[in-house]
Amino acid sequence: MPNQHPEALAGVASGVVAAPPAVGLPDVSTVWLRVFLDVARHGSFTVAARTLGWTQSAVSRQISSLEAALGGGPLFDRLPRGVRLTEAGRVLVPHAEAVTQALHGAARELTELREVAGGRLRFGAFATADAALVPQALAAFRTRHPGVRLTREEGITPGLLKRLDSGHLDLAVVSTTGRTPLEPYGLHHLLDESLYVAVPAGHPLAGATGPVRLGRLADADWISGSSRPEGTLLDAALRQGFRPHVTHVVGEWTAKLGYVAAGLGVTLVPALAAASVRQDVALLPVLDEGAPARAVYAATARGRSLAPAAEAFLGALREAASRIPCWGPGGTMA
User: Fold this and answer.
1) Which end of the chain is more exposed for a tag (fewer CB within 10 A), N or C?
2) Helices (DSSP H) in the chain: which residue ranges?
3) Beta bridge partners of 76
4) Mean local confidence (pLDDT), 186-205
């Protein structure tokens, strides 16, 4: 095998074929590629210069720089009238078109992100927020930004925060119920949620006007999602000095209200769920002179930039939250 390099012969003898040398990534300006495609399209430096608003010598310099960056071979044959692509030039055309098309696509998608005309939004919410707050915000958001791809999850606050930590959610609607630490997150306050107590329609308090103290129901049977009041909405009863007797542990809201309607006890209903209460149940606003029952936030991951779609959805959540009726201190409607 004449004229073979000794290292190549060693590779053949050992049964291993050496890989061809790696080709380095050329340091090429996208401006050069744009000029190259214009010259190729028009077959003329002069016409390309006129189209670009440049001088012919400026176009020629750009092509010379591109040729040098790609190894020095000519991309065009200079003819008496105009130019013609060389074989190297013909090879480069589809690659130059792919690069410029990809950059145009990137610029278009980035513009859509800025204008909230595209991109994606992944958010989650706790179940009660899905009763009114999230649907109202989502309806407004979709009307304004129909091109955004939406993904929604439902869960409890700790699980939603884990999804936020792992990067699977851009935003999560969470609450302070359960005493989950929220300090590590970016918090956007939506509302301080007041409470209602749901009683059967025939209950002696059903006709009461204005907020009631929970102490008036200290001897009642209570329906709750947990047998222990700590870390639940029934913290409000503990603040008023009594420990409620939980007779029925029921997790789902419509089921809780079914138990109330049947006369099996009373339950607390947050303001976010008040609009969905059935007609055979009476809702009484709770007078809680201490801290609000719970605060509701839109949580985001600290240190991560909030995408324009998430910013827009946050605005829609705030608008929806402003329409949720809440009782302020002293029993006045906030």
Assistant:
1) N
2) 6-14, 30-42, 45-52, 56-69, 87-114, 133-144, 157-165, 235-239, 253-261, 308-321
3) 85
4) 92
**Residues 299, 182 contacting (CB under 8 angstroms):** yes
Are 197 and 266 in contact by the 8 Å Cβ rule? The answer is yes
Quick check: 75 and 38 in contact, CB under 8 A?
A: no
Predicted local confidence at residue 217, as pLDDT:
93
The Cα-based distances of 50 to 53, 100, 264 in angstroms read 5, 20, 86
Angle, helices 56-69/45-52, rounded to nearest 10 degrees: 110
Helix axes 30-42, 56-69, angle to 10 degrees: 120
C-alpha distances (whole Å) from 73 to each of 33, 70, 97 are 15, 7, 20
Inter-residue contact 237 to 229 (CB < 8 Å): yes
Report d(CA 92, CA 43) in Å as an integer: 15
pTM for the full model? 0.68
Q: Alpha helices, DSSP H only, in 20-120? A: 30-42, 45-52, 56-69, 87-114
Residues 250 and 257: their CA atoms lie apart, in Å, by 10
Phi, psi of 130 (to 5 degrees): -75, -5
Contacts of 8 (CB under 8 A, 6+ apart): 18
The position carrying tokens 């991309």 is 75
8-state DSSP, 116: T
d(CA 84, CA 147): 44
Strand partners, 284: 197
Residue 151: which H helix or E strand, with range? Answer: strand 149-154
The amino acid present at 96, given as its one-letter code, is: A
- Cβ-contact 128, 271 below 8 angstroms: no
Spell out the residues 6+ positions from residue 98 whose beta carbon is closer than 8 angstroms to its own.
none
